[in-house]
């Protein structure tokens, strides 16, 4: 009976945690700012608050032992822009399935974005403007079916005067912890599987170990040192046979 009460208590605590409301708001104008609210607690994530430095008592310097040289690990291959662009249909399908499971509990408010495409090459600028406009007006109607988006305002413009691309706006989300768990499991696992598959198809180049390099060097030295001696010895034998 006691075990049953403990189990009911754990289930009740988990249910309360999953029902905690979470809010996040990001704004980017001159600088990026991200505020997060979890239940009654609100805090700023970006920019990070300054940390208070604690004064530590000075200790006498200890004699440092020489450390053996460590090998620098080369970073493995990472997916590039082309790989991600090729996987966009998969990501879009996964995102739709995941958002459908939240039953429109995710609320987006506000949503105000202004994007002006610029660049030095007018043809490339026009092409990027076409991509951005197509993406926005293709994705937004579908997102409005899967989430609650209140009063969206999105502006996509183009500037051919050679100025760089600029963007500003703000966007806010409200959801529950349960929705965050659903999104993490529903979208995180397929993306992780895609990355593991990509990693197997693009293995990192094999590195030679020190022992292999030493063995190769010793083989080359032995071959280089023995061949002249053997050649001279064979010449002497030939000369002696001829004299006889």
Structural account:
The chain starts with a helix and ends with a helix. It has 6 helices and 7 strands; from the N terminus they run H-E-E-E-H-H-E-H-E-E-E-H-H. The chain is extended and about 60 Å long. It is α/β, with parallel strands linked by helices. About 4% of the residues have low confidence. Helix 3 runs antiparallel to helix 5.
Q: Between the first and last Cα atoms, what is the distance in angstroms?
A: 110 Å
Radius of gyration: 32 Å
Order of helices and strands: HEEEHHEHEEEHH
Q: Which strand-content bin applies to the residues?
A: 15-25%
Helix count, DSSP H or I runs of 4 or more residues: 6
Q: What is the helix fraction of residues, given as a range?
A: 40-55%
What's the number of extended β-strand segments? 7
Derived from helix and strand composition plus strand pairing, the structural class reads alpha/beta
- What kind of sheet is the major sheet? 7 strands, mixed
The averaged pLDDT comes out at: 83
Gross morphology is extended
Q: Which residues sit in consecutive blocks of at least 5 with pLDDT less than 50? A: 223-232
